[in-house]
Each structure stands twice: as structure tokens, then as C-alpha cells.
Amino acid sequence: MVAHEARAAQQAEARDTEGTRTGYGRPGGESFLGDLVANSSATVTLGPELQRAVDQLVRDVAGDVVAIVEEIANDLAEGARRQWYDNVTKRTGESGESNDYRLELRGTTVRGIVYNDAQQVQRSRKKSEWRLTPYGGQVRPRKLQNYAYYVRRPGPFSKLLRGLNFEEYRAAMSYYRTHGDLPTNLQARSMTDAKGRNRPVGIAKITVNPAHYDGKNLWKVLVLDRRKAAIDGRLEDLDKAMQASADRFSK
Fold first, then answer.
1. Does residue 203 lie within any of the structural domains?
2. Cβ contact 110:103 at 8 Å
3. Same-domain pairing of 190 and 223
4. Which residues contact 170 (CB under 8 A, 6 or more apart)?
5. What share of the chain is helix, strand, coil (3-state, %, to 5)?
6. Structural contact between residues 175 and 169, judged by C-beta atoms closer than 8 angstroms
7. CA-CA distance, 102 to 83, in Å (whole number)?
């Protein structure tokens, strides 16, 4: 008897390839879409040649099931690529283009896995890797991480910093000399210059981000939240394909 399982594991600390958990899924952010499982009473370990033979047998007997699982995974990955920058500023484009999928055949199990492998060196999010300084501070070491799982749409109160033109800068410095501080709509990178003098450096104007939105995590919205509907929409096709596969397997 062949049964189909449609499940998706919640994503782990998605940028962390070592699997720190954040509540979204498995290490690396993999989203499991579908399994074709044959019930058996024993488990055996297969060598590589025998495993390849079993994989080919699964494709021969259940090729239509494999095709549907692949279509579901591809639709999710393609949809994420297409909508990734709808509300997010595109810089390198790597995080959006890195949404992809792969198929895994393990014996009689077929898995469609959607993932994002965009990587960047960033400070560790694993508290177990943080170190305390002699003065009680914390040091977060830098490491290569899968960062795309952390990309969020701008929040409803998102702000942008815009550089000042010459006239705006003159007005800002005049205000500073009079009041000893900057206007509330301005922000300085530092209030001390390179010579140690008390004067603002890198002044910018705080403006409303025109792309402000809901602040939600892109991977969750575009992949994890859509997986159930993607699978449910193909359940009838999967049932027919699995029945056909079972009929062929029983001959």
C-alpha cells in the first residue's frame, strides 16, 4: 500500500547552516513538500549502486508522482523568486534569485525541498557562540550564514535616512550651534568628529520609507505559508498518480 504524506517542517535558524532553531523549519530552511512512502516491516541500509537502482525503480513505477511533487516545489520556488522584491529594496538580487528546489529520492520516499542558499558573512545569531568580554559586553563572532531566511518586508513605521544638500546642511549646523543639538528630524552618524570635537558628523534627514509595509518575514510569507495550499491544490492529481503507481507496483 502506498500512502502520500504532505508535510512541511518548520524552518530552523534559517541563515544558520548548522541548524540553530528559530521556529520556521529544518536546518537550512528546507521545506518538505511531499513524501511517497511504502509501508514496510524492516529497514535496511543500501549501498550506493543499489540505492541508485532503487531510485530508478521509484521513478519507473511512480514517475507521475515524482513529476507532481517536482511541480509543486518548482511553483513555490518560482513564486518566491517572482515576488521577492515586491516590497523589498533590491540590491544584489542574490537573495531573491537563490530561491530554488531539489528532489530527493530515498528508497521509496520522494521529497520536494524548497530552499534558499544565498550566503553572506554576518554576526552569529547563536547565543551559544557569543563570548563575554572582561568588561561584561558580548561579542558575536562573524560567520558565513544563509541570510535570505531573515529578509523582512519594511515595517509600517519604517524610516529612511537621506543625505542633506548644502543648504540643508548649513541650516542644520546653524541650529546645532544655537541649540547644542540637531532638529528631531535629523540624525548624525556621530556627535564627535575625528579630532574629538563636539560636532555632528554624517548628518542625514529621517524620512518615511515609501515602501513601508507589514514587516513580515519573506520566506515565511512566500514559501512556508503557501505550502499547504500548493499541496492541497494538487491532492486529487496526487491521489490518482499514487493509485496508478500502486497498480503498477502490484503487477
1. yes
2. yes
3. no
4. none
5. 35, 30, 35
6. no
7. 20
How are beta strands 186-192 and 198-208 bridged, if at all? Answer: antiparallel
Same domain flag for 184 and 234:
no
Over residues 196-221, the pLDDT tens digits come to: 889 999 999 999 888 888 999 999 99
Q: What is the rounded distance in angstroms from the CA atom of residue 11 to the CA atom of residue 149?
A: 9
Lookup: cell for 214: 507589514
- Tens-place pLDDT, residues 219-239: 999 999 999 999 999 999 988
The residue whose grid cell reads 513605521 is 157
- In the structure grid, which three cell numbers stand for residue 197, read together? 570635537
pTM greater than 0.85 (yes/no): no
Answer yes or no: do 58 and 89 share one domain: yes
Structural domain tally of the chain? Answer: 2
d(CA 232, CA 225): 13
Nearest in space to 235 (alpha carbons), one of 224, 243, 247: 243
Tell me whether residue 128 is in a domain.
Answer: no
Structure letter (DSSP) for residue 130: -
> How many CA within 13 A on the CB side of residue 192?
4
Q: Find the radius of gyration of the CA atoms of the chain.
A: 26
Domain around 189: 159-208
Q: Give which of 113, 128, 111 is closest to 29, Cα–Cα.
A: 113
Residues 6 and 102 in one domain: yes
Selection from 151, 123, 114, 158 nearest residue 8 by Cα: 114
* Whether the Cβ atoms of residue 172 and residue 204 lie closer than 8 Å to each other: no
* Alpha-carbon span 59 to 46, nearest angstrom: 17
Distance CA 150, CA 14 (A): 7
Measured CA to CA, the distance from residue 61 to residue 38 in angstroms comes to 12
